Automatic annotation (TrEMBL):
Recorded family membership: Belongs to the Gfo/Idh/MocA family.
InterPro entries the UniProt entry points to: Gfo/Idh/MocA-like_OxRdtase_N, Gfo/Idh/MocA_domain, GFO_IDH_MocA-like_dom, NAD(P)-bd_dom_sf
SUPFAM superfamilies associated with the record: Glyceraldehyde-3-phosphate dehydrogenase-like, C-terminal domain, NAD(P)-binding Rossmann-fold domains
GO MF annotation, one: nucleotide binding
Occurrences of domain Gfo/Idh/MocA-like oxidoreductase N-terminal (ranges): 6-124
Annotated protein name in UniProt: Putative dehydrogenase
Pfam families noted in UniProt: GFO_IDH_MocA (PF01408), GFO_IDH_MocA_C3 (PF22725)
Ranges where the GFO/IDH/MocA-like oxidoreductase domain occurs: 134-253
Record key words, sorted: Oxidoreductase
Amino acid sequence: MTKQKLRWGVLGCADIAVRKVIPGIQKSQTGSVIAVASRSQEKADAAATQFGIARAYGNYEELLADRDVDAVYIPLPNHLHKEWTIRAAQAGKHVLCEKPIALSAAEAEEMVVACAKAGVLLAEAFMYRHHPRYERISQIVRSGEIGVIRGIHATFTFNNASDFGNVRYRREWGGGSLYDVGCYPISAARLILADEPVAATAVGFTSSQHDDVDMMVSGLVEFPNAVGLTFDCAMWAAPRNTLEVLGSDGRIEVANAFVGEDLSIKVITSRGERVEAFPNLDAYTLQADDFADALLNGGSLRFQPADAIANMRVIDACLQSMASRQRIEIAK
């Protein structure tokens, strides 16, 4: 790999940026965070001081005008993803946008088109799938060790309902559990099955205390060959984040599927069971390295922007199903 480093700017000082993504980039061999921006100069200065970042801007426009910034990471509230991705692309910056990439597949398509027109790369920040254990899960599935896949079950729940000022509880800002954590099980099932779903059915409850966003959603996502993903996601329930891939001859269990320190998987078949452990690698660092590799070495993104559009189509269908209480077919 080239010794050149990708020069990152960060648009916003969201919790995910400060706790995970900036430290992850700084630990990488391929990237350096050279600028951070916030709508508050004080917040930008504080983040710059905390992480030793050279440049702090009191607005996003100034960072996008910085000619030394090669790529930007966007951790802004969901409703701002489209606007600032397009503005970053127009400024000639490559974009890593926090999940969900947009509020709809149509918005995602606009972003992909804008980035392609500007000649910049666009990726959605699903960090979990960059860790080698997901390639290993897919490898086991492809090998036939657990037989024919019959179904996948995944969960991602937490309880943050007392934090009434949280942006997750702003409906117009793209709040809700499906956008926030339900996108993970959907993404994981599509990754493992290497296929796109054909229909979705979902039910959820909303809370008037939280701007009527969905606080929990339970869903069935139908894939070809009669394989289903059953999932639940919540922001007002006991914490879980699990994954089970069920085959005709065995299963794979992942206790901490998306976040957590235990990165092992359990494989159970009629021949017995085993636990496979993996190195404690930072998925945020791996994500930054994969993005930089495509730019610095002329490769291609590990996960193309079309994947983000496809994931949003499933989320669109789940939201439509919740509203209509009907099964929604997903167009290819």
